[in-house]
User: Fold this.
Amino acid sequence: MAQVIHFPLRLRTALIRSMVDDLDAMHGARANEFWRARIAAIIEDLRAAGLSSATIRSEILDLNQAVQQELMARSERPMQERNS
Assistant:
């Protein structure tokens, strides 16, 4: 049986940027619902890949941190840069 080599979520730049793009356009309950649905789908994929609960938890926490860092980085950029 082949071993699956997992690529950490925190390094999936396209995933992080996609989530931040969506979150940037939402606020409040809508953003919360989006986040919960997206994370639930990711957790389902990780479970299907055979990762342990502890590994999944760690991956989700790391992803959350990466998303928060990208949100903060974007908020610090001048408006002109964010719109280009």
